[in-house]
Amino acid sequence: MIPARQGAVERFAADRDALVEDLWKHPSGQAWCRWHTALYDRLIRLVASWHGDQHFTVIATGGYGRRELSPKSDIDLTVMPVDETNAAVESAIRGFFTDLDSVLQRVMGTSFGYAYRLLNDVPGLDSTTRTGLLDLRRVCGPREPADALSLALRDSLPVAEFLRDKFAERDDALRTTHSSPLVVEPDVKSGAGGLRCGQVAAWVSRALGQRVSAPSAAYETVLRHRNLLHAVSTRHPDQFTRSRQAEIADRLGIDIYDLMSAHAAAADAVHAEYRTARRRVEHATFQLAGGVRAVRGELVIAPGAELGSAAAAVAVGTQIGLRVQPRRLAPGPLGSGASAMFALGTSEAVVRHLDSAGLLEHLLPELTACRTLMPRDTMHRFTVYEHTLQLLRHLDEIREGYLLELRDGLVDRKLLYFGCLLHDVGKRYPDRPHSEVGAEMTREIAARWQLEASVADQLHWLVLEHLSMARLIRMRDLMHPDTSREFAELVKTPQRLALLTLLTYADIRAVSPESWTPAIASFLQLAYESTLAVLMGDAPDVAMDSADARRRLLRSLAKEPAESVRQFVDSLPAYYLASTPAESIRLHRVYAERAQAGQLTVDFVPKPHLAATEITVCAPDSPGLLSRLLGVIYAFDHSLLAVRAATTRTVPAIAIDTFLVSFSGRPVPSATAVEMERALRTVIESPAATDDLLRARGKDPSRSQRFFSYTYRTGNPGLLEIRAPRGRGMPYRFSRRFAELGWNVVSARVGQWAGSGAASFYLSGADGRELSAGEVRTAMDALTLTG
Q1: Which of 500, 566, 757, 764 shows the smallest number of beta carbons within 10 Å?
Q2: DSSP 446-471
Q3: Residue 698: CB partners within 8 Å, gap ≥ 6?
Q4: Distances (CA, A) of 787 to 349, 368, 702, 707, 738
Q5: pTM to 2 decimals?
């Protein structure tokens, strides 16, 4: 910069410092900001003049456009060329920005942002950019570009979308700052009662075509305090902390409590202005889309309106608080399926409004046909239609945790909500699995709506597999490494995993209040995290061969006595080593050593986060031991959630069995635990005691499980999945039969599935051999015939 120009700019810096010092002598809001703004106007005009300001127009936007520059406010500018085809214009603008950066940031210490705009850019501007331009003001250069920009902004403003975005931004800001203006340390810009409240109120009036009132006395007070706060702050100049309050009160010679009481009163009034502006929408009339208008707070849809655009308008109208009166509409053309999908993928409230407006029955007759359809699963609390909308409610109400991260991190949230709307439509046709029927119907809907092929494929997959994860967490051993690998092969991508996890969460919660338990919540998160680890390549490649599993475990137990650890690890089956945490194995080693010395272990550990208790039994193995232990749990009427069993290859062999049980939806009470421990020890030492205990507690120990269905997948262990009428005795009865056959249960999951009792048993034959499908079929058929 040449010396003459440098000197001129430095004089501006001195004038700015003097102006800030004068603020303490004459504290004010609007008046001081206008003097401050005028100083920067002169400076920017000076810099523009160095580059021929006839070539471009400089426009102030945001707070600078409103002439509300506080001492540390940023400066936002838009530059428009007079003739974008003129090479001299491009050179002039480049030189202007270069010198302005030097002048403002290096000399004045002022941050600034700028944008190069053409008139053709206006239709594509986002809400945030439009907001800044609403307060545009020409600083220098020809007037015509600024006038044309102002007119284009007014004519292209999507009123409803703009209001929705402003209200959403305000809601987000209030959540991150403070939602009440009556706070001790307020944020004078973004918090409740801050300047943004008054600014949004003005923007609402402008968007609705109403007269914008002059800033109120309360707004003036808040702005004055912001000016003073900026003058004493070096960091976070909008946080009115106690230390800054004290400094300002001291310099003004007033009482700090009087200062902040005055601020609270002003902030309360400014926040009331914002609330009034939001209510003003309820009395305005404006256009939302072709065929849809807002009239005094109500959405009015013209007969024959295009369904897609009308649905999108209802979605936006719902988000800004407009009402919909129940009515029936003559169907119009579908129009844009993408617009309709946007609307249906917004929230539960929008879908209910679409239903009330008479649009849903024309958009998705497959769903509204389920309005009074009763579920065949007795666990469900609602009709199929209402259950579906309850899913959306539970998705809307996610507020924290990994599920919130998943929902808000979705690339396309509409896929999730639309998939939820379609997941049960196949229940109208009960002769086939509803997931398969629903997936076929989804293909037909996607074709009717002319959705992109990739979208149709995702929706088809989501509806087809919507039960897969619920079945996984209820029926499979989630600690088994094969479980997450197999599920990863099904979902294939993290995005599909996220979609299915969220749908599963909402689907279970919408069944009934009793369906969502802490244990189910924990199992769902475990399934998600372990599957994601496989998809991202972070899961350990745990080979099921015993040599690899033993090497890994020995490294993790390196600090333990070497020989005893090696002997214990060598005695364990590979399945147990690969799927049991090292911490549990360390504890089980101690229990096993005690059992070899003749000391039984029956350990109760409450798991409040699962609303359950983990019971570990370690004792010399004997025929039917697991069945007897399950008999005790059945006798006490506890809900069995999971079983893990292992037997050491030592002499004597030691059984290490772990059970996860729930007592009426909570951990086992201590008094009951004492009684159960006594019973468990008794049946370990006296096998015949199991039948006596069952009879004493009103159970029939000889009852067989006659009515059931099953599937079996060979392997070692093999996986036997059983469906039977609900009842807590099913695991005991099957384990008793397995014991009679000499089979080993190495793990089990027990729960409910589709209104029935369900269990998965991981089985091996005597001496750990693999069971064939024929052996299992013969044994199951024999149960059916003799039961």
Answers
A1: 566
A2: HHHTT--HHHHHHHHHHHHTTTHHHH
A3: none
A4: 52, 44, 10, 8, 15
A5: 0.78
